[in-house]
Amino acid sequence: MPLIDPVTMGNSSDWKTKLLGKSLGDNHSESTFAKKDLPKEHRVLEENSMKTMDHKPERLNVHVDGKGVVRDVSHG
Fold first, then answer.
1. How many whole angstroms separate alpha carbon 59 and alpha carbon 67?
2. pLDDT digit string (tens) for 14-71?
3. Range of the domain at 70
4. Pfam families of this UniProt entry (predicted)?
5. pTM attached to this predicted model
6. What is the DSSP letter of 72?
7. Residue 45 phi/psi, 5° resolution?
8. What stretch of H or E contains 7?
9. For the domain that residue 38 is a member of, what is the CATH number?
10. Separation of alpha carbons 10 and 42, rounded Å
């Protein structure tokens, strides 16, 4: 059995399609993605913020700019 289930994890490009250019909030709208619908294993990384360097392949990293708009998405 693989350590990572690609079906439940999804891939970064799928998440980029859903998140890029949107802000994170409580509910969905044309310009907002609901935080509750992010995977359980995620973190939001603001510009120039410190982060741990531990690698968790299943963790979704959501990179936001100074205005809280998603600019990149990756796993790790």
1. 23
2. 999 999 999 999 999 999 999 999 999 999 999 988 888 999 999 999 999 999 999 9
3. 6-75
4. Inhibitor_I78
5. 0.82
6. E
7. -115, 115
8. helix 6-9
9. 3.30.10.10
10. 12
